[in-house]
Write a structure and sequence with these properties.
single chain, 226 residues, mainly alpha, three-stranded antiparallel beta sheet, 3 strands
Length: 226
């Protein structure tokens, strides 16, 4: 016990964010973030006036606790709905959001929902997804390219919330147009067997003699970050 206490210590704590940081220096440096919450905060019968009266340094921040509960529900949803092939597509889209400015506004949670919904659309929901990663990726691009985000879009409902919440409501009109144009160009690249451009890798030798999409045809929304 004494050996453990010498090498593990609570380095910091943030009561407003209901978090505690625990750090270990030996044999390998590791820092763990521990979030504290309670399901009581989500109960509808919680009396706001009582919480306001009891608010002090000993009481956890309710909003922060609700945020942690939301992350916990999302984690459970992810574990129950995501397969290996869908995780591959999710990682590709995360990489795309880092390289292409048009995709950067999308949050990790919205990407997880989009990938899962594209693989489990009506007609396929009764069976686990049998699509390969390229097929799921194409369906994601088709969804955006169809104008899903434009005009009177129904949005993307959050399955982990009691109320109807659109996880894409924060996108501006310009961001929606950029995503649509970028997805349309990505579909063209896939049709011409130029998936390597979407992935940001070198052109495979076997594809050098195939048709090419002119560089001038690339919209500004698909240009990579400098």
């Amino acid at each position: 016990k004494q050996w453990y206490q010498r090498r593990v210590a609570i380095t910091a704590g943030d009561i407003s964010q209901v978090t505690i940081f625990v750090k270990r220096t030996e044999p390998v440096a590791v820092e763990v973030k521990i979030s504290i919450t309670s399901a009581v905060f989500r109960e509808e019968e919680v009396n706001e006036s009582i919480l306001a009266e009891e608010k002090s340094s000993r009481v956890l921040e309710r909003k922060a606790c609700l945020d942690v509960l939301g992350l916990l529900r999302q984690t459970k949803w992810f574990e129950s709905r995501m397969s290996v092939s869908l995780i591959v597509v999710l990682q590709l889209l995360k990489d795309l959001s880092k390289r292409i400015p048009a995709w950067s506004p999308l949050s990790t949670w919205s990407l997880e929902l989009l990938v899962e919904r594209c693989a489990r659309t009506k007609g396929y929901s009764s069976q686990p997804p049998q699509f390969s990663p390229p097929e799921v990726l194409r369906r994601v691009f088709e969804l955006f390219a169809s104008g899903f985000l434009l005009l009177n879009s129904p949005g993307l409902n959050d399955p982990c919330e009691k109320e109807s919440v659109d996880v894409l409501a924060y996108l501006t009109n310009q961001e929606r147009e950029d995503l649509t144009a970028s997805a349309q160009y990505a579909l063209r690249l896939m049709v011409y067997n130029q998936l390597y451009k979407i992935l940001g890798i070198a052109q495979p030798p076997a594809l050098k003699n195939l048709g090419q999409v002119p560089r001038s045809a690339a919209p500004s929304s698909f240009k990579q970050k400098s």
